[in-house]
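Technical note accompanying the year-one report. For the benefit of new consortium partners, we illustrate the data format agreed upon in the data management plan: each record pairs a sequence with a structure-token string. No post-processing was applied to the example shown here.
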Amino acid sequence: MANLVRIGLRLANKGLFAKTEVTSLRFISGKLLRCQDDRPPKPAPWNYKEKSYTILNYWTDRTTSRLDENSKIVVVEGPVAAGKSKFAKELAEELDMLYMPEANLDMVYINEYGYDLRQLDEQLPESCRSFDVKDFLLTPKHKNTAGFQFLQYHTKYSQYIDALAHLLSTGQGIVLDRCCFSDFVFVEAMYSQGYLSKGAYKGYYEVRQNTINELLRPHLLIYLDVPVNKVQENIKKRALPFEKNSQVLTPQYLSVMEKVYKQKYLKELSKHAELLIYDWSDGGEVEIVVEDIERIDFDNYDLHDPKCKDWRRHTEEDWGALRNKYADHKDSLQNYFNVPLHHVPEMVIDAEDAKIYHDIMNNAPGEVYQPGFNADMGDTGVLFKMSGHHRETLPLRERNLAK
């Protein structure tokens, strides 16, 4: 019997659980090149939103079996009104990738049933009311500005985890309209204009340092460069009331953003990701950008080069562990936000206010029970359900600029 056990262990070590070298795929291909591709089809996407991916699945459903040259994260950055959303959508279409709109608080305030929790603001103490980018642009010195910025960063962070889970579970690449790595650009601009206190500013960086290193940095960063005077022209042209009447979008604020983007963010992230910069003052052709992307060799680095190092994983176990981390342990990753900020008055809510908030929110439409268990909102089979959603995935909901 002992001999049989030893033989079984040897077979396991040589077969199912043996380490397998995985070669990274170097180039991104546009739609034209992919149409000429005759490789066999990939396995169907793994439904990471509903199914766990545990260590037992590492070998029965290999992560690398779905990865191809376009299984990459591309982030589009640039100033306000640069045309990022339009460009990012078109780029995603050209590269056969998933477009993720800029993370925004509509994704948080509108629940799974379509009920907008901001409708309850009149019943809430001022410290607990919703506050999003439109409110900030009109009243930047409001007491809720600090809370807004922290929630905005948390939302971007949550979305980026979803992007990593999607890529590793389905093989489909992602084009993101902005991401959490650039969030500090706004914080620097806000602090420079006196919209954040020194305590809130330092508190933000405490949270950032505790969270950001848990994520894989993008493969490619595309920056659409638009000078400040042209940004102001674009803002005027699109005539959104909260931008047109904003106290924030001044030449000073926009200049600080431009400076931080170029002197800090692009400089730092380009050590780890490929970088393309375009003068987008008058827009541009997506096809030209695709041609430039197709020329990039994402594997032209030695073992110790920091460029794209986050994505150099050489064994199936490594890829499986990453996939498990982002698809199954999103809650654990978001727990890194639990940094005590009691020294920042703007981040502390009075206990009485907090009680009113929870009493009202816990009785809001769709908020009484977990999603899927609210019979009054149309959920069925409630008595026979054993569990809720496997993970909380942010909806791909663009910010409603017209409202």
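Partners are asked to follow this layout when depositing records. Residues 229 and 294 are 32 Å apart (CA to CA).
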